[in-house]
Known about the structure:
This protein is mainly beta. It has one domain: Outer membrane protein transport protein (OMPP1/FadL/TodX) (Porin), CATH 2.40.160.60. Helices cover about 10% and strands about 55% of the residues. The protein has helices spanning about 5-25, 30-35, 45-50, 160-170, 185-190, 385-395, and strands at about 80-95, 100-120, 130-145, 145-155, 195, 200, 210-235, 235-260, 270-295, 300-305, 310-325, 330-335, 340-345, 350-360, 360-370, 375-380, 400-410, 415-420, 435-445, 450-465, 475-494.
Amino acid sequence: MPTTKILLIMKRTLVTILCLLIGTAGLYAQNEIDALRYSRLTPTGTARFVAMGGAFGALGADFSTLSNNPAGIGLYRSSEVTITPSIFIGSTESTYFGDFNEDERYNFNLGNIGIVMVSNPTLRNPSSEWKNLQFGFGLNRLANFNNRIVIDGFNESSSYLTPYINYANENNLSLNDLDDFGSGLAYDTYLMGYDSISGNYWIDMPDGNVLQRKTMETSGSINEMVFTVGANYNDRVYLGATLGVPYIKYKESSIYTEEDIDGRNDYFRSFSRLDELETSGTGVNLKVGIIVRPIDWIRLGGAIETPTFYSGMSDSYSTTFKSSFDTLYESKRKTSDGFYEYDLTTPFKATASVGFILGKIGIISADYQYMDYSNARLRATDYDFDEENEAIRDGYLVAHNLKFGAEMRLGSMSLRGGYSISANPYRYNTNSALSSYSGGIGFRGQKFFVDFTGLISQMDDEHHLYDAPINADPAIAYTKVTNTMFLVTLGFKY
Length: 494
């Protein structure tokens, strides 16, 4: 069998597993999509950090480095307070069966707030080669989940309910075996019937011929509390360590509808599925880093970050089905509110960095980050998550992320630009790299500074509405996500 065909079959199999886990998971609704969502981060932080593409691993003296390479705190020579208000605009375009849609969502948030305090050991011991000791405390934003997506199109080959009857018939499920959060609700709202003579389940629209629409709105973020210590040894070696305490707040509301707008089905008129989810969790990780200045105009940086261990993650969720028929009969069923606690471990990270200090002219910098998304894991005391963790291992891969930044100094003013690429995490999808372009301007005085930055990031992706049968058209929407941010950092030195 040709290699290309084997890869296509493997991809189709993986997609089937993902959709079954999403659509029929029932109580255990946590899956590999959650693991990726909370592992693939897009840190913001200060305006200067964002303007230079986040390539600060060898530069330091910026509060955002406390969540990236904590050795950056070692380059502080004076104490400092920063705060970064920002505006986030999440926009999404979608194409589904030839129909185009777009929508967006706005959000105001804080990219960072923090303080760095510096002491000078040489004041007590002039012969000491430890020039400065630093302590930092504050908050950095690691991810923003605010977005809205609208998908619709006319499907002439399958329905959302088609996989329900196929799975039930192939596995000879009894009525008691139907999923409480999926096929069971479809049966209770008369969308799915059962023929006791043949022993088969059926629906009125197995081949679709329906207008399908999905609207999904997400909100929330990951913010990280950082507790950092650092030191400067003889102005040549800078060390730092951060205890990070990230916390997750995520909310998702999605409504999927199908409507027989042309009257092609016998009695089905429409149905809708409303899913609501709220997730929260707090984790802990440790970051250690070093920056070396072998000669005055070069800085080399390295940092490692342990996996983040989220214990006590909690999901609250519910599903509601509504149906209507040509007879004007309508039905509605809602599940009881679900609640589940579990643990999540996100992957280890390693970063290597280089910075070139061009005297009073400016800075050029670059960061490389290694991260293996297939190492994320879900765990619980009452469920083994074997299928979900296998999907993580099979579906995700190692990502090699790159960041580049530059700064030109014009007296007290600085012009900045940056580019970063977060590599595609999917083993069988090569179109989901996240590219970001940024630029900004800053003004610095002896005791006060202000920085302004704008950023645009874009990513192409696929949204699988459900697992369509092999002989049907894939129920896949092709999406383009564009995130825009405007940040202002106010800083005070003392």
